[in-house]
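Aim 2 progress update. The chain analyzed this quarter is reproduced below.
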Amino acid sequence: MDSSRIKLESGAQKELIENAKIKLGVTWSLLACKIGVCEHYLQNELRSEERTLKAEIYKKLIEIIGENYDNRILEILDENWGRAKGGNNSVSKPIKPRLLSFENSEELAEFVGIMLGDGNFYEQPKKSIYQIRIFGHAKDDYPYLTQYVFRLFQKLFCITPSIYFKDTKQVLVLSKQSKNLCFTLKKLGLKSGKKTVNGASFPSWIFENENYLKACIRGLIDTDGSVYPKTKKHKTPSIWFCSASPLIRRDFAKALKILGYRISKWTERKNTLCQSCSIGNSEDVIRYYKEIGFSNSKHENRFKKFCKAPVV
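Predicted structure tokens:
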């Protein structure tokens, strides 16, 4: 990926950003999401020209407005140009990773659940690769990933992920290359690599607080869960969870038992390594909705659709 930065003539960067907003006819928040940056950063630093544009952001803005601003480029800077001015000594010293989040919280527990569900991160230090990704369905999970998870990401770690489509636009991905974030996730008790191989499980601190358990479960259900009608006659649907990781299944069942929920036996899904279980008792389902709930509107909408009586 091009890591250079584009320095435009005075006033051109502000004009480019404002023209993109006008062209799309969206809010600053949606434009920021569209190009993969934080709304505050877009409005207060890029628009005011306090910061230059990354080449990838410049290209996205150009594509939006359908015009070429290349003739207004003053300079193309390498991403490390500022550091290079300090001389070789500053470059040669290895930079120690730092924690991006310092205190456990319900929001952090929910993010852990999201990562244990549809997230992963991997590292190749020799190649300076520290990649974090969260996956979802391009259509069904679009509001959840581009709004809720995107903002949660920013709030917890003060960094902004990129958003892109893959597999012929059927899959939506939130992605961030960050050594600090990988370091932070490991300190939180998560493991890099494939979850079925690395023994992924709930970090021990999640079990210290019932609110942490609820938040982590919500993150898991929002990503690896589903809502289905039990039968045509039942007023409430069932809430399902599926995972290929034995330790995540173990901890999921343990957490729900602590919280007083009953789940069905685990059953294998055909032609997959996944096993699934459900919360099917009507009282438990209603209590789950009231006590834990959904952050993913896909599940929220399906739950309300399948309930014959309003949940009060």
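The domain at 106-198 is CATH 3.10.28.10 (Endonuclease I-creI). The mean pLDDT is 88. These observations will guide the mutagenesis experiments scheduled for the next reporting period.
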